[in-house]
Write a structure and sequence with these properties.
The chain is of the alpha/beta class. The chain folds into three domains: 269 residues, Rossmann fold (3-Layer(aba) Sandwich), CATH 3.40.50; 154 residues, Rossmann fold, CATH 3.40.50; 126 residues, Rossmann fold (3-Layer(aba) Sandwich). The chain has 25 helices and 19 strands. The strands form four sheets. A seven-stranded mixed beta sheet has the order 9-8-10-11-13-12-17, with helices on both faces. It has a five-stranded parallel beta sheet with strand order 1-2-3-5-4, sandwiched between helices. A five-stranded mixed beta sheet has the order 14-16-15-18-19, with helices on both faces. Helix 14 runs parallel beside helix 20 and helix 16 packs parallel to helix 18.
Length: 649
């Protein structure tokens, strides 16, 4: 399997030869393909996906599971005109392959290449840049409503576009999904919701909705039989005496048992299914039926995550986003990773130690047990481990409730996903001044996952709240000490750390005192003040400048409360200061440093703020993105040179 080239080659595809996919400039020809040709396209898609994983990490099992569903959708709808929203979007690779992006596909998840999520800048087939779960039904309801209203305003006689939302069962319990269905049932606009049920989110799904879907999936009555039985029951008369009222109640009970989707029916959404999502002809038949029905329709499609590649089907959790591997006789052989263990593993071990020491400590995650590497914690402390599903708002309010009883909950959620619970952080935690500890994984640049997943805004959105303490470990040994300090603090705290290897320093970290920084090295000419994991680059920059400038390095540790004494001392005698952070410039650590300096009435002319610009950062390798945005050691060193006040050298 060859490595992908930097650009498309129409004559040779680095992932193999796939004549049917290569012939598709868009999805329209699929509508005239025979069943055998569609099966061949499905095989070609799976071959491309397996070859991709030999080149780089990518979403895998979820994409294998929707191949047939994707083909059926494009056969029954014209999504150049109709509307298609893929919820979350990490399962969009087959969609990209059949919508004219086959030749570009080797560039996926690389800088300036295709994005691993839907991207309207790539193709008119992609309507939204989706990356957070649960929003597809809401946007689909809005699209349908807007199209209908627009047609009335313009008095257009063109056929109104069909609208389809594809949502997984893992995302389905999200509160916004039920808000959207509530609205859809009231509006009664034509809409097709495809529930892709594979019994998974990233990890096995949790909650009562999952159990309900299990019952629907195991229901022996198929749609046709159910409709016939219900039609017969509807002819059973209703009478007035007690015995007759009992018969009427029995009638409704039987109807409820046969109509497995009563939850949806009560919301005025027609329920159809469940059906086999890997039978292209069957899915096409039901999609054709659904799009002819009036009002909102939910089509329940049962698929297998990892379908078509046995190792992925047997272990869909590992193969959700596996490391690069090669297939060896039907077995996936992964490559050994280089570098130090990531911050996520250090955070996991710190959590384990704190839970072992204090029975009040609990851990709450939102369907990200695998992403946060918490499986050993779940096994060791099952009674104090809570996975609430993709329901971040509930996770935070749930933590507040636990906190009120005397427990010390840790909420372990990716930075980009914690944004979904902003109001609960405000109302239920900060306003109540409850000591919930937030551990923000993937804070900073998440590399190939791109703008939907970069955790760039948490410094700004967390430090705004009164009572909140915001800190960031800079190296491996600091993680445990910082979590211990947060759990000992009687106010809400947040810790942020990136999707990156943790710096290993040969030093015992100074004791963590709330609001106090740590001096790594002294410098007579100026200081680099690094917040969090940027300490690695700051130390490297200072070392580059040896013999040219005597530059100190400080591990800021806290953005709130910021170390005012450190701010005063670093700006003393007119020395320069360069602040460095892996987050958005607006409202970030550099802003906090300048706010403090102004409050202290200090001269800030020699301060330079290095952070990420006021734009959405595209996907690419983390080190590559840091360099592009002047956060490499070389760029930090140059910023120090540029910041030197005249007459200092």
């Amino acid at each position: 399997m060859n490595q992908p080239t930097s650009g498309p080659d129409e004559n040779h595809h680095p992932f193999g030869e796939h004549p049917l996919l290569a012939s598709l400039d868009d999805a329209m020809p699929l509508r005239s393909f025979s069943q055998q040709e569609l099966e061949s396209v499905a095989a070609e898609i799976r071959d491309v996906l397996c070859n991709l994983l030999a080149a780089r990490t990518a979403h895998f099992a979820s994409n294998l599971g929707v191949v047939e569903l994707c083909l059926a959708l494009h056969c029954e709808f014209d999504f150049r005109h109709d509307r298609l929203i893929w919820d979350t979007g990490h399962q969009v690779y087959p969609h990209k392959l059949v919508t004219g992006r086959y030749h570009e596909f080797p560039s996926i998840r690389t800088r300036d290449g295709l994005m691993g999520y839907p991207n309207p800048h790539e193709s008119p087939y992609d309507l939204f840049m989706t990356g957070h779960a649960g929003c597809s039904v809401s946007t689909a309801v809005g699209l349908r409503s807007g199209d209908l209203l627009g047609a009335r305003i313009t008095e257009s006689d063109q056929p109104v576009r069909k609208t389809v939302a594809v949502i997984g069962d893992g995302a389905f319990p999200s509160g916004i999904v039920f808000e959207a269905m509530n609205n859809a049932g009231e509006l009664e606009d034509d809409l097709t919701i495809v529930l892709n049920d594979n019994k998974m989110s990233i990890c096995p799904r949790v909650g009562a909705v999952a159990t309900y879907l299990d019952r629907l999936r195991s229901n022996p009555f198929y749609t046709g039989l159910k409709s016939e039985v219900v039609r017969l029951l509807d002819h059973v008369p209703m009478f007035g005496d007690p015995a007759e009222r009992l018969l009427a109640q029995m009638k409704e009970g039987v109807k409820a048992g046969l109509l497995g989707g009563m939850l949806f029916e009560e919301l005025n959404i027609r329920y159809v299914g469940p059906i086999d999502g890997h039978d292209i002809a069957l899915v096409r038949k039901y999609l054709a039926m659904a799009k002819e029905m009036s009002g909102p329709v939910l089509l329940h499609v049962v698929t297998e995550k990892g379908h078509g590649y046995k190792p992925a089907a047997e272990d869909p959790v590992f193969f959700h986003t596996p490391p690069a591997f090669e297939d060896s006789g039907g077995k996936a052989v992964t490559r050994q990773s280089d570098g130090n263990p990531p911050f996520t593993l250090h955070a996991r071990e710190a959590i384990r130690r704190q839970m072992a020491q204090d029975e009040r400590v609990t851990i709450i995650t939102a369907a990200m047990c695998q992403g946060n590497k918490l499986e050993p914690v779940r096994e060791q402390f099952p009674e104090r481990f809570f996975d609430v599903g993709i329901c971040e708002s509930h996770a935070v309010a749930f933590a507040a409730g636990q906190c009120k009883t005397g427990l010390r909950p840790i909420v372990d959620i990716y930075s980009t996903f914690l944004q979904r619970s902003y109001d609960q952080i405000f109302q239920e935690v900060a306003l109540q001044d409850l000591p919930v500890v937030f551990m923000l994984d993937r804070a900073g640049l998440t590399g190939p996952d791109g703008p939907t997943h970069h955790g760039l805004f948490d410094i700004g959105y967390m430090r705004l709240f009164p009572n909140m303490v915001c800190m960031a470990p800079a190296y491996a040994a600091e993680v445990d000490a910082m979590l211990a300090a947060a759990l000992a603090h009687d106010h809400p705290c947040s810790l942020r750390y990136p999707k990156a290897s943790a710096l290993e320093l040969e030093r015992i970290p100074e004791a963590i005192a709330i609001g106090k920084s740590e001096v790594i090295r002294e410098g007579a000419d100026g200081t680099i003040v690094a917040y969090g994991a940027m300490l690695d680059q700051a130390i490297a920059a200072a070392e580059m400048l040896e013999g040219e400038l005597d530059v100190g390095v400080i591990n800021a540790r806290f953005v709130k409360p910021i170390d005012a004494q450190m701010v005063r001392e670093t700006l003393d005698h007119g020395r320069f200061v360069v602040t460095v952070e892996e987050g958005a410039r607006m409202g970030g650590f550099g802003s906090a440093f300048l706010e403090c300096a102004v409050e202290e009435r200090l001269d800030t002319r020699a301060v330079r703020v290095l952070a990420l610009p006021d734009e959405f950062i595209q996907h690419g390798d983390r080190e590559e993105l840091l360099a592009e945005h002047d956060l490499s050691p070389q760029a930090i060193a140059q910023a120090c040179r540029d910041a030197v006040p005249s007459g200092v050298r």
